[in-house]
Specification:
globular; 11 helices; single chain; 298 residues
Length: 298
Amino acid sequence: MSYAHGTKQERLPVWLRRPLATPGRANAVEGLLGELRLNTVCQSAKCPNRGECYSSGTATFLIMGDACTRGCRFCAVDTRKPTPLDADEPARIAEAAHRMELSHVVVTAVTRDDLEDGGAAHFVAVIEALRVAVPGATIEVLTSDFGGRTVSVDAVVDARPDVFGHNLETVPRLYPGVRPGAEYRRSLGVLARARERCSESGTAELPTKSGLMLGLGETPAEVVEVIRDLREVGCELLTLGQYLRPSPAHLPVAGFVEPAVFEELAREARVLGFAAVASTPFVRSSYHAKELAAAAHF
């Protein structure tokens, strides 16, 4: 297997080579998603774990269309003018979760800076539909920064998902080149606000989750500083994974991080107090999300 690293084809390091997933339930999952006209981040973001997840009967739903209003240089999701929200989408996602017999449902979204609330009300509608269709399931959301709108964060928190996630993606120094349109402190503020809202409303604390990609040019020391920042705002779940370039139009990989480094960063995170950490090259935000949440004993 070759990989576009920089300007030439280079072979992936041995720890990033693995056999293809067995078919399992993949065809059934793909057929159901097509039938219900649903997007997944697995497909839109070209996730390397798609085969494994589909084969095991899971998927991460991508709501509010397949076009993003931002142009993050690591992300395979298309950047173009989005279509109007589909009011029937929450019901179709709920139906899919029911038919897939999901016990842990992960919902993420494209960034919709064109919407007054950033799409918060749509998140709420999806959560409410899932509560009816799969009442025994836990629900995890991975939101955008909503453009810094506190009221939008509050709306999603008030809908009471079981896990509230927002990814920092990389270290502060790399934000201008990796996440144009985003701000490091604003993203930290989203996670802080989720916890603050619970305190204000007198409801039980809502576990928060974040993730970073490694291999974009960061140093281990910078990653540790981000991990510390996340703990300072009460983040309890952490994912760390290797960035893989989705196309020649995206940022090149600055380096392939060895598994031992992932293990050391995981140890550091646990020492700092994270309830659960997933830190290996193939980890993505929603990869084995159910198991990560369970490991935290929420």
